Amino acid sequence: MLHPTRPLSNKLRFGSVLTYTRNMLGGDNQDSSVAICQVIQNNKDWVAEMQAKNPKYFTNLAKGQSPKLLWIGCSDSRMAVDVLTQTNPGDIFIHRNIANRIPSEDLNVLSVIEYAVKHLKVEHVIVAGHTSCGGVKTALSNASVGILDHWLRPIKDLYIANEEELNELPENERIDRLGELNVIQGVRTVSKLPVVHEAWKEGRELRIHGWMLQLHSGLLKDLDVSVASPKQVESIFKLSTGAH
Ligand SMILES: [Zn+2]
Question: Which residue segments constitute the domains of the chain, with CATH numbers given?
């Protein structure tokens, strides 16, 4: 059986700057760290367990993938997608980055979305943030964390756009509400992408959802902002039906 939280016996060491950055991004709780040598052994144990259950498990897995879900979430180590959704390898196509951002000019996330929607033909895109997000917390502060300052700057803009609402909240709630607004913005960004509208034009079922992982309970909260049709998107983003 896999034991992802085995006690640490061989901690990796970080320099002071990296440690500072890690702490700012929510990595100050190291209770669940795992020894690097244990990771390889855990993998061997898992392979043996899966083969014992089904000798053809890996032969079948190697044949290909046809996931129905695309998950775009935060890189935070506590967002263990397979574990918290109790899904199996092959079930979810995944993209993660700090603070689950979806810049409309970022080739990385755009490539993942295009491949998932156009070729894998996923039926659901889930934009998932989480409470106590270190990326969002950092964006709300005046700390400088190197290149991340650029990556997180749009979250500062999102704060400014919603400053009145956010400033009425206590700090923890402010971080989580800004995290929700960041997810909602991500849903809106995905719903405007041409590849998504092409799928809808083909009559395919494709829903974009916004969820928040509640770290204190482990539960996923549906923000109820799902988009399933071009009718829910401003007309300027809809594709023309005529040929050019
Ligand atoms: Zn996060």
Answer: 1-64 (no CATH), 65-237 (3.40.1050.10)
In contact, 82 and 71? CB cutoff 8 Å: no
Residue 83 sits at the vertex; the CA angle it makes with 82 and 85, to the nearest 5 degrees, is 70
Q: pLDDT tens digits for 193-205?
A: 999 999 999 999 9
The answer to whether the annotation marks 37 as part of a ligand binding site is no
Task: Decide if pLDDT at 242 tops 60.
Answer: no
Q: How far, in Å, CA of 127 to CA of 234, rounded?
A: 20
| Euclidean distance between CA atoms 58 and 60, whole angstroms | 5
Query: For residue 23, what pLDDT is reported?
Result: 53
Confidence band for 239, pLDDT divided at 50, 70 and 90: confident
The answer to the question of whether 76 is labelled as a binding residue is: yes
Residues with CB under 5 A from ligand 1 (ion): 74, 76, 133, 135
Q: Which residues are catalytically annotated?
A: 74, 76, 78, 130, 133
Q: Tell me what the pLDDT averaged over the chain comes to.
A: 88
What are the tokens at 229? 């049709």
Which residues in 20-31 are b (16+ Cβ under 10 Å) and which e?
ebeebbbbeeee
For the entire predicted model, the pTM comes to: 0.85
**Taking residues 107-131, what's their average pLDDT?**
98
